[in-house]
Design goal:
The complex is a heterodimer. Chain A has 10 helices and 10 strands. Chain A is of the alpha/beta class. Classes of the chains: A alpha/beta, B alpha+beta. Chains A and B meet through helix 2, strand 6, helix 4 and helix 6 of A and helix 14 and helix 15 of B. The structure holds adenosine-5'-diphosphate and magnesium ion. The site of adenosine-5'-diphosphate has 12 residues of chain A, from helix 1.
Amino acid sequence: MLEIKNLTKVYADGTVALRDVSFKVEDGEFLIIIGLSGSGKSTLLRCINRLVEPTTGQILWDGQDITAADQTELRHIRRKIGMIFQQFNLVNRSNVLTNVLTGRLGYVKQRQSLLHRFPQADRELAFKALDRLGIRDQAYKRADELSGGQQQRVGIARALMQEPHIILADEPVASLDPVLAHSILEHLEVLNQEEEITVLCSLHYIDLVQRYASRVIGLRDGEIVYHGSREDIRRMTDAEFKNIYGQEAVRVGGGLEGSVGGSDDKTI
Amino acid sequence: MTKLYKPEQPRSSLVTGPVAAFASCIIPGLGQLLALQIWRGLLVLGSMASILGLLAWRAVALAPRETGLLAIFSKALARRPFFIGGVLLGALILWLWNVWDAYQQAEPQRRGGVAIFALILFLFFTLGWQISEINLYKAVTELPDVWPLLSKVLWPWEAAVTRDTETVIATAPIQIPCEGSAPESPAPIAGQPYIIAAPTCGELSYMDENNDLVMGTPLHLEGEGFAPNMKTQIYWKDSVGQEFHVRYQGEYVDVQTDSVGEFEVDLVMPYRLQPPSAKGVQLHEVQARQVSEVGGLKPSEPLLLSVERMIETIFLGMMATVFGIVFAIPVSFLAAKNLMSGSKLTLSVYYLTRTILNIIRSIEPLIWVIIAAQWVGLGPFAGIIALTVHSIAALSKLYSEAIEGINTGPIEAIEATGATRLQMIMYAVIPQMIPPFVSFSIYRWDINVRMSTIIGLVGGGGIGFLLI
Ligand SMILES: Nc1ncnc2c1ncn2[C@@H]1O[C@H](COP(=O)(O)OP(=O)(O)O)[C@@H](O)[C@H]1O
Ligand SMILES: [Mg+2]
């Protein structure tokens, strides 16, 4: 169980990105974080693996305080938390296999890895991950030769290599078109259901939210302003919607009930 | 809300328009200064003073023998009417404009033109043209003079090859002066070249009190047994063993042998500075030489030397580049802000490194050679040290800026996997660094090879060494 307690982040320039945020995530949940851009979604996700140092507050994972971990402990925590990014963040000039293998860096011996040597078992694991995401035949291509959807699958494969208990996904589909968005989120859903990996994902498309989320948190100006289940999302009132997205925001496509197959461009 | 600053008020002038104009009439720019247009005034004053100063300097250079301002200027004007007249006219226009401008600047509705600054620039350009002695007419008319030099640069190979030579020498002794029994020319040996001198003793040419040359004893030489139809050079070997090609009336004494290998030639005994010890009877020698080329073409000494030095230069540049790269890579990581902004300590290392690099880079490689030559002596090694030091500083800066410009996304992603800092650098930073590193390094090699020719001039080895 992941427990966020009174988390506050103030950046060096004085921007308050998170304000006293508290919530719990049970193992196996698919938690989606929504909110306008600038509301603090990325900051929240990055605080969990401390790519961003929290200013105050605690993050407890199965009782261990991540915010108090020293460098070695932090690395051990990080390798159990996979992360995927909006911009994929692959090393463009390296090939797909190498990119995927970097997911093992937290486990392998440093000296070996500096020589680009990985144990055979890890290489097999990498091919299995690529297989699972349907891009095995791309293994020896340079990462930047792949399409956006393929690159994000490499990103997932890299996270998978960590054998993670949690995956943090920061707007994983915002750079992809809607059809690809579904295929990426379906991969995450499968991992969530079959491997019982907890997923924390920030999203922009609201109908993707109701399709995949088991629970939803709404952020505005660094504060939690909405908290609901998948059913709650379907029943979200205009008032709740405006509370998250502001008074000027308009819900496109007339309500959120109904299929996801329709217009995917109900972006906020 | 209160305003923190007022919108800019037009600054008031200390004086009225006519006063300012009068002030500028006496001292250009003064009126503008009084109108509190400080920069404008200083600019006008400065350019007026320097234009007149430079003009006076050129005028004196054109009329060095004249005294008095008027005489100098009229002489200079006569020699270069367009230049002197043009600049004087320009200065006059500038002065008139300055008076008008001072008036304008002191009035409340100030208007100021900038076109006049084009005139100032033009005047400086005209002066610059004269000062740097640009002479288009000469450049065009004397263009043919360039050709011999240029052709040597473009086609240097004539001097690049030589043949081995073989010299045939026959000698006859000459005694200076005639005293006692004169030596005899050696008896001819069949099949060998020989010369017979007549007489075999006499006086050398010498300089009298008025530094006029007084001719020595005439000498008749007959040679036989030489190669036919070939140039034969007459040499003289004096009593201390110095050999030189004899001149007679300014020309080298050379004769052509006839079809049976014989020649006859008349000359006088040459002028020779006698060493103080050379008293009394001395024995000199007259020689006839035939130089023939044997064997095939072979590279000449200068060519071999140049090639050797060129190779030295290229390697000098290469070694300096390699050493530069080896040291610059680790240093560049210390000089990259994005990698070093982690803590106060690393940040201060960053600032220290940057400062040192800036200092090293601002010192010319030429100075480094001099320092290095003091240390390890003249030669290629000193050159390598100088270029290496400079390369480290230059490459570190370029590399570190490339590091600062890399995409931070992959760094974040690798850090998120639980990788160590070293692993992160290896997998996220270095792959992104390779293309800029390679191109900067090749560029540096190019610079180093070019620079090592110059470095040679001050003793750093390489091809430049030959130019000293
Ligand atoms: N490195 C940073 N330094 C200063 N302010 C930042 C930094 N990163 C984000 N912010 C600010 O923090 C707030 C939250 O940003 P972010 O977490 O990126 O929001 P989101 O991901 O929801 O768009 C924004 O106001 C943003 O400008
Ligand atoms: Mg974001």
